[in-house]
C-alpha cells in the first residue's frame, strides 16, 4: 500500500480477484449499448497468424502484471497457482489441440519461482500434458532463470532442503515476485512480439478499425432516427 500511495507502483498493478461487483449491466438506450459493444469489441488479430501464444504464471499476482503486457496483443494469461489440477490441465490440453487443429504452432511462456517446486512445476505440467493428453508444444520458462538472478541482483532466500524436490537443486531460491514489474512486462511483450507477422497483423487491425466505424454509424443511425424512443401505447 505504501508504494502505491507514493507512486512507486500503479494502483492497477495488482488485482484483487476475490472482491468484485456482482450485478447486471444496464444501458440508457440502444446507442449506449452499441457504444459499449464498440469499446468491448476486439478482433482476433491472431487468426491470420501461424502461431498461437499463451503466458503462464505460477502466481495470481504475477498474472496481473503479465496481463498488462499481454492484453494489447490479445494473448491469454493463465495463473497456474502451483501445480495444475487435472481439470485445469484437461482444459489447457483442449485449447492447445484446438489451436493445433487450426494449423498453428503453440508457444507457451512461463514465469515462476526459481526453487525446487517452481522448477518442478514446469517439468510436471509439460510431462502430464504429453502423457495424459498427447499434447506436445513449445514451452519456455522466461523467469526466473539463473542468469536473471545475477543480472538483476535479485533477492534470494535459503532453499528448503526438507523439500523432497530439492535433491538435485543447487543454490538459493528466488521468488518470481523479486523481478520488478517493468521487467516482467518487458519479458512478456518480447516473448509475444517475436512471433508476429507484422503485415498480417496490420491488415487485421485495419479491419478492426473499419468494424468499429460500423458501430459508430449504427449508433448515429439510432440517435438520428429516434429509435431509442418508444411511443406510449
Task: Please give a handful of descriptors for the protein shown.
single chain; 233 residues; 4-stranded parallel β-sheet; 8 helices; 4 strands; 46% helix; 10% strand; disordered C terminus
What does this structure look like?
The model is unreliable at 228-233 (pLDDT under 50). The protein has 233 residues and is of the alpha/beta class. The longest helix has 28 residues, at 198-225. It is built from eight helices and four strands; from the N terminus they run ααβαβαβαβααα. Strand 3 (105-111), helix 5 and strand 4 (138-143) form a beta-alpha-beta unit. It has a domain at 49-196: Dna Topoisomerase Vi A Subunit, Chain: A, domain 2 (3-Layer(aba) Sandwich). It has a four-stranded parallel β-sheet.
What's the SSE blueprint?
Layout: H1 2-5, H2 30-40, E1 51-57, H3 60-70, E2 77-79, H4 86-101, E3 105-111, H5 116-133, E4 138-143, H6 146-151, H7 181-193, H8 198-225
Parallel strand pairs: 1-2, 1-3, 3-4
Helix pairs in contact: 2-8, 3-7, 4-5
Kindly summarize this structure in a few lines.
With 233 residues, the protein is α/β, with parallel strands linked by helices.
Unreliable stretches (pLDDT < 50, length at least 5) are 228-233
Q: Which geometry do the CA atoms define?
A: globular
Average pLDDT confidence is 88
**Based on helices, strands and strand pairing, what is the structural class?**
alpha/beta
